[in-house]
């Protein structure tokens, strides 16, 4: 008679590399949005629609990481990689793998949205505003051959935008200003 | 081309055809409920349609807990809360919506209130916010266009803050959709035309939007074929039960398709037109559809998909006659010709100006359209200046 193997209390474990990559991506995105909201025309225009004190939290389910930001007088402020439980807008990415694919530019935010891999708590209109700002940030963060995967239309890099990119990658990303 | 990933969900049982209404009491028994609240509107009562539904309950031993027949054309939080209060007071255990989009959305809103046990439905607006199984909802559509009987969406107006609150959740899906030809027989020609083109827009956008998939494609193509064969004739000759039934099926299939693949820029702009200029949703869709298709045409993927749609839109002979590169334009032309034929048959407007939209409303329409969730599913990027150009062309 053959014996049946029964595995009980099996734990699927963790994926620390993916988590670190997503954390790094969220950090870069948070600092870029923070900096862009102070001088980049498109991000400024979008973020101006939010009242002072408005906050959003982009959370990877179920255990994070998260990207939390708040609108203040000086612009958007990156609050770190912790979940903001009382945020006005919460965008839930349904699993770590999806967030990872977004960060490594395998898929764009619009695809993830269309694939039902994002849940939104709060106004859909404000979530679209956030996605438009993320598009702009990604356009600056990634070179054209990578951003093609995540943007519906590639960002045209004129001289002004080249200068903005330089500012964002130095002052914004490195110095957090 | 297969999508890299997709989700498809349609748990709605569909009872369709002759005397389908009479099956409702049995289905309620299978759901373990016995005391429905029927939600409808004054027009349905005047047209004698509610009577058909009530007759379906005869000899069933069931008691209808309450009938609410005052749903307005735009559902609002106040109406939803009022009906929810009646539901609780009369100890109902399920909901039956009899009507068009407004009645169905209102009833879905009532279901959220009574099932979630909330008195602040606005706090649950958004995607996937609901957490509790909803009460059984049975939907009897009386128009052939919205497809709400098979969608997971409800839109409720917050009249105090002048905003529309969208709710999307798989939990909002009705348990049963009942398509009975009697329920659409008396639909006036203009509403038949506009709601039919609403279904057409659902099917075309479902076939071309970002989350199209093999299952939604099958529903979309079948819906377009039924609309092609039956819509114009039904507008000309409304008392043909077989054609009415075909349109009801087309609407349901187009609804199933877009509920799983999402809709695009036509809907994004049409929602804004409804909010600002108060023109009926189906009419806005019918006017905008060819203009948005032309806007999308320089996207190679969209052109390819429009070309494929020529087959269900115009039939096999027209498809075979057209060279491959001509097919996308021919598909758009077929929709334009369909709109013209409907204009001739019943006076359905083909331009926004004829529908009562004013140019000075454009700025507000553009702003609202850019905030609409449907815009993100349009495969081609749409910005504010594109929306303005589409509006100008369609004016």
Provide key terms for this protein:
A: 177 residues, alpha+beta, Nonspecific Lipid-transfer Protein, Chain A, 5-stranded mixed beta sheet, 7 helices, globular, B: 395 residues, alpha/beta, Rossmann fold, Dehydroquinate synthase-like, alpha domain, 2 domains, 6-stranded parallel beta sheet, 3-stranded mixed beta sheet
Question: Would you kindly provide a brief summary of this structure?
Answer:
By secondary structure, chain A is an alpha+beta fold.
- Indicate the mean pLDDT of chain A: 88
State the fourth-level CATH superfamily of the largest domain in chain B: Dehydroquinate synthase-like - alpha domain
Number of strands of chain B: 9
Helix proportion range of chain A: 40-55%
Q: Could you please say which CATH topology of the largest domain in chain B applies here?
A: Dehydroquinate synthase-like, alpha domain
Pick out the low-confidence regions of chain B.
none
Fraction in beta strands of chain A: 15-25%
Number of domains of chain B: 2
- CATH architecture of chain A, please? 2-Layer Sandwich
Shape of chain B: globular
Instruction: Specify Rg of chain A, calculated over alpha carbons.
Output: 18 Å
The CATH first-level class of chain A comes to Alpha Beta
Output the number of helix runs of chain A.
Answer: 7
Gross morphology of chain A? globular
> Which CATH class of the largest domain in chain B is shown?
Mainly Alpha
Structural class of chain A: alpha+beta
Describe the structure.
The complex is a heterodimer of chains A (177) and B (395). Chain A is α+β, with helices and mostly antiparallel strands and 177 residues long. Chain A has a single domain, classed as SCP2 sterol-binding domain (Nonspecific Lipid-transfer Protein, Chain A, 2-Layer Sandwich). Chain A has seven helices and five strands. In chain A, strands 3-2-1-4-5 form a five-stranded mixed β-sheet. The termini of chain A are far apart. The mean pLDDT of chain A is 88. Chain B is α/β, with parallel strands linked by helices. Chain B contains 15 helices and nine strands. Chain B has a six-stranded parallel β-sheet with strand order 1-9-6-4-2-3. Chain B has a three-stranded mixed β-sheet with strand order 5-8-7. The longest helix of chain B has 23 residues. The mean pLDDT of chain B is 94. The chains are: A alpha+beta (177), B alpha/beta (395). Chains A and B meet through α4, β5 and α5 of A and β5 of B.
């Amino acid at each position: 008679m053959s014996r049946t193997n029964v595995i009980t209390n099996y734990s699927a474990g963790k994926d620390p590399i993916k988590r670190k990559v997503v954390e790094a991506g969220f950090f870069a995105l948070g600092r870029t949005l923070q900096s862009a909201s102070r001088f980049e025309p498109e991000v400024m225009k979008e973020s101006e629609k939010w009242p002072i004190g408005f906050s959003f939290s982009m959370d990877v389910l179920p255990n994070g990481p998260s990207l939390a930001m708040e609108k203040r007088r000086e612009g958007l402020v990156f609050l770190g990689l912790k979940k903001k439980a009382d945020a006005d807008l919460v965008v839930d990415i349904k699993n770590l793998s999806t967030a990872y694919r977004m960060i490594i530019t395998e898929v764009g935010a619009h695809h993830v949205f269309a694939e039902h891999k994002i849940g939104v708590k709060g106004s859909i209109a404000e979530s679209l505003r956030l996605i438009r700002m993320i598009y702009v940030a990604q356009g600056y963060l990634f070179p054209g051959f990578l951003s093609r995967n995540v943007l519906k239309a590639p960002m045209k890099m004129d001289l002004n935008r080249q200068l903005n990119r330089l500012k964002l990658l130095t002052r914004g990303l490195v110095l957090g200003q | 081309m297969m999508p890299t990933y997709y989700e498809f969900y349609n748990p709605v049982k569909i009872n369709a055809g002759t005397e389908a209404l009479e099956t409702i009491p049995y289905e309620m028994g299978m759901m373990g409920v016995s005391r429905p609240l029927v939600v409808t509107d004054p027009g349905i009562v005047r047209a004698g349609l509610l009577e058909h539904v009530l007759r379906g309950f005869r000899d069933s031993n069931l008691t209808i807990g309450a009938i609410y027949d005052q749903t307005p054309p735009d559902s609002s939080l106040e109406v939803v809360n009022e009906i929810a209060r009646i539901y609780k007071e009369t100890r109902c255990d399920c909901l039956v919506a009899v009507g068009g989009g407004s009645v169905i959305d209102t009833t879905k809103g009532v279901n959220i209130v009574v099932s979630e046990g909330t008195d602040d439905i606005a706090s649950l607006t958004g995607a996937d916010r609901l957490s509790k199984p909803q009460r059984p909802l049975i939907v009897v559509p009386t128009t052939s266009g919205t497809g709400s009987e098979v969608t997971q969406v409800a839109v409720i107006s917050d009249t105090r803050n002048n905003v529309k609150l969208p709710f999307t959740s798989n939990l909002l899906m009705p348990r049963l959709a009942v398509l009975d030809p009697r329920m659409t027989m008396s639909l006036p020609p203009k509403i038949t035309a506009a709601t039919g083109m609403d279904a057409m827009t659902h099917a075309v956008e479902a076939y071309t939007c970002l989350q199209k998939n093999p299952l939604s494609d099958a529903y979309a193509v079948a819906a377009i074929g039924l609309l092609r064969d039956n819509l114009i004739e039904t507008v000309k000759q409304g008392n043909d039960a077989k054609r009415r039934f075909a349109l009801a099926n087309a609407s349901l299939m187009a609804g199933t398709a877009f509920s799983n693949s999402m809709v695009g820029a036509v809907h994004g702009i049409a929602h804004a037109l409804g909010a600002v200029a108060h023109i009926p949703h189906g009419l806005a869709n019918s006017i905008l559809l060819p203009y948005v298709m032309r806007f999308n045409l320089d996207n190679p993927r969209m052109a390819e998909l429009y070309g494929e749609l020529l087959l269900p839109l115009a039939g096999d002979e027209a498809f075979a006659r057209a060279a491959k590169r001509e097919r996308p334009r021919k598909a758009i032309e077929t929709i334009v010709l369909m709109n013209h034929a409907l204009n001739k048959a019943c006076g359905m407007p083909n331009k926004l100006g004829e529908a009562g939209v004013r140019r000075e409303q454009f700025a507000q329409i553009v702003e609202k359209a850019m905030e609409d969730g449907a815009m993100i599913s349009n495969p081609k990027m749409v910005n504010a200046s594109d929306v303005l150009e589409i509006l100008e062309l369609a004016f």
